[in-house]
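Q: Got one fold?
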Amino acid sequence: MQLLLDLLRSRIGSPISYCSIAEDLQIAPNTVKKYIQILESLYIIFRVTPFSNNIARSILKEPKIYFFDTGMVKGDEGIKFENLTALSLLKHVCGMVDFQGRPYALNYLRTKDGAEVDFCIVNDHQPELMVEVKRSNPALSRALINFNKRYNIAGIQLVLHLKREKNIDILRGLNYLSSLII
């Protein structure tokens, strides 16, 4: 389990394949899945699954893994910022569920051709807000634009190192996260 935890620490923000991890650790994929469930129940990690209207299909697709303790994350500040954003959005979504009784969920968006948006806040099985996370690139994400055009979902891009906010779509990451109701 320690080897799995160390492996997950360096795979933040990437879809996780249980079979791939099982090959790396030389254990069965079901064992990997059970270990991940144990780590989740201990509030060490949490999964963000891809959004799909078909719930059974979204469960089968590859989740992304994030840590509750951002100090556990291995990687550059961009990866750590993505984990911080995931954690803040999860707390926001849980707050909406707990305090307002609204059926919110945190997912991510991905198409068959690989276009991906980091996070999607879903209300009653309907995507409500897309969130793309960048370390320093102020250019608006192509995937965010395409999903917005195709599905008419509101979107924002959070940039960690942004000299100044250009418009409502590109925001200073820490300012936005601190404004969330948790």
Summary: Residues 77-100 form the longest helix (24 residues). The domain at 2-72 is CATH 1.10.10.10 (Arc Repressor Mutant, subunit A).
